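At this stage, I put together a protein sequence along with its fold in token form, as given directly below:
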Amino acid sequence: MNHLNFLSDYLIASVNLAIPLAFAALGGMYSERSGVLNIALEGMLITGSFTSAIATFYTSNPWIGVFCALIAGGLVGLLHAFLCVSLYVNQLVSGLAINLVAAGLTSFLARLVFHGSGTQRLPGIEPIIIPGLANIPILGALLFQQDIFVYLLIVLVILSNYILFHTSFGLTLRAVGEYPKAAATAGVSVSKVQYVAVFISGCLASLGGAYLTLVQIKFFTENMSAGKGFIAIAALIFGRWHPLGIILACFLFGATEALQLRIQALGANIPYQFLAMLPYAIAFFALVGLAGKSKPPQGNGVTYSPEHPQDI
């Protein structure tokens, strides 16, 4: 029974740690499928975390916090799209700038709002327990005692897979990301498609941030995203810009982080610094192993200008 409990707890921890990565990576998929490189996932995550915390703090309603996080994430996405699509700013520079501004601004505002306290408890979103099914060993706790974010993510993965490969919008999105000049020749508004895609990207990534604040930790602290946006980018590449592949990659990274936390809890004679870097090391080796094998959309990261269309 102890082994079953350990396995159940480990799987639940793996899923919980994978959720924010999955929302961010899924958002990044929409942006990069449209040809806009999105390094700003880290900034979108921390923006969602902060906004949900502030809204929940003042209203005591976590659902209002989630709604405000969606709005804030969408606005950050529109800012990234404006810089990259309308002003033709280098997409890498734009993403890094947003990350830096988001980290600094949220830290500054959090100190003002919470008066320097980094442990202001917030009303959280509790799990939904499905009677009967929740009592099934291992699967019950894993599938039928989860919060709304887990079920929403499952729906979004299925929906994204359908939209991307079975709808005209998905075809247009992939066409713009692969060859924007040909899409524009066919009458597609490249900039409009990219704006919509990056807006969706910001909204989804901000949900990952709201999950960190309202479900996983239930308070806001500075830089609480802790590089998860960059691991999400690794998961996006490892998953080959496909919804199902992305989810599996996020679960792998979540399982790795859960493993290092379990090893630390057992008191193994291993330096905690080594254990803490384990998820990042796995992400690094995963990317090295995929070098030359995982190919992004051809137009990803290439600024398209209607006045000076580029052959890519």
